[in-house]
Amino acid sequence: MATTSRPGTFAACSVNRLLRVEKGPAPRELRVLLGGSLPRPPGAGECISVHMTRVERYQGYQVKTRALAAGVAEGDLVERGPEGLAVKGAQLFTVHHSPYTLRFFENVPFEDVEDVVAGLPCALVAVGETANLSPRFIFHHEVKDGKLMLFHGDGLALKTYMNVRVNRNETRLVLDLDDHAGWALRGTVEEFAPHQHPEAYERICRGFTAGSWGKPSRVFRFVPESFERIRPA
């Protein structure tokens, strides 16, 4: 689920080969080496976000660069070297789906990140203003009047919700976990009331119960308008 904080914009996304992660020059910084290219260069006010998740553990991390602004050059966010792209992360966030991790984590030991992402073939990349990439379980879907609708729930109002409050445009990545190829869906996401989609709400609640996450604090409907093939760069 890729979102941005600039109204009317979509996060530009790509799937890139993950070469390795390295410690950055400062304690909270992390360098991510990727194969391929960015979906596009960052523009003014935008950052690059790299998402790495080990799905079988439901554990992962999101690395964000600084925003491109006055006094910050594109080379402060990313640079191309002989091995590939080096994304210079300034912030690191945990994106695990569990009661323990449904919140911000600012000080994640490098060894924890290294352990989780070791051997992962690919990472997901998003470019945009306050670009955020976060996984979601799709507990229900419907097709109405020829339009697909995907339903999910959130536990806490974190980074994704902060973006969705000001910009309902979303890029949803739906990928085959064997080869990381799939679809980039662009559309709108909005919160719904339980009575509007009772079956979806019930299934989301069941999913949260199965994961021992309590009840969802908010539930959302995503309606894609465009579908584009995506594969590792």
Description:
The chain is mainly β and 233 residues long. It folds into two domains: 2-133, no CATH class; 140-230, Electron Transport, Fmn-binding Protein, Chain A (Pnp Oxidase, Chain A). It has three helices and 15 strands. It has helices spanning 110-117, 159-166, 198-210; strands spanning 2-3, 12-23, 30-34, 47-54, 59-64, 78-80, 85-89, 91-94, 122-128, 132-133, 140-144, 147-154, 169-175, 182-191, 218-230. The strands form three sheets. Strands 6-7-3-2-9-4-5-8 form an eight-stranded antiparallel β-sheet. Strands 11-12-15-14-13 form a five-stranded antiparallel β-sheet, covered by helices on one side. The longest helix is centred in the C-terminal third of the chain and has 13 residues, at 198-210. The protein is globular and about 55 Å long. The chain starts with a strand and ends with a strand. The mean pLDDT is 92.
List the helices and strands and how they pair.
Blueprint: E1 2-3, E2 12-23, E3 30-34, E4 47-54, E5 59-64, E6 78-80, E7 85-89, E8 91-94, H1 110-117, E9 122-128, E10 132-133, E11 140-144, E12 147-154, H2 159-166, E13 169-175, E14 182-191, H3 198-210, E15 218-230
Antiparallel strand pairs: 1-10, 2-3, 2-9, 3-7, 4-5, 4-9, 5-8, 6-7, 11-12, 12-15, 13-14, 14-15
Concise account of the structure shown:
The chain is mainly β and 233 residues long. It has helices at residues 110-117, 159-166, 198-210, and strands at 2-3, 12-23, 30-34, 47-54, 59-64, 78-80, 85-89, 91-94, 122-128, 132-133, 140-144, 147-154, 169-175, 182-191, 218-230.
Based on Cα principal axes, name the global outline: globular
Strand content: 35-45%
| Strand order across the largest sheet | 6-7-3-2-9-4-5-8
- Spans where pLDDT lies below 50 across 5 or more residues: none
- The DSSP helix count reads 3
In helices, the fraction of residues equals 10-25%
Counting copies of identical and different chains, the oligomeric state is single chain
Query: Radius of gyration over alpha carbons?
Result: 17 Å
Q: Look at the structure and give the mean pLDDT.
A: 92
E-strand count: 15
Structural class: mainly beta
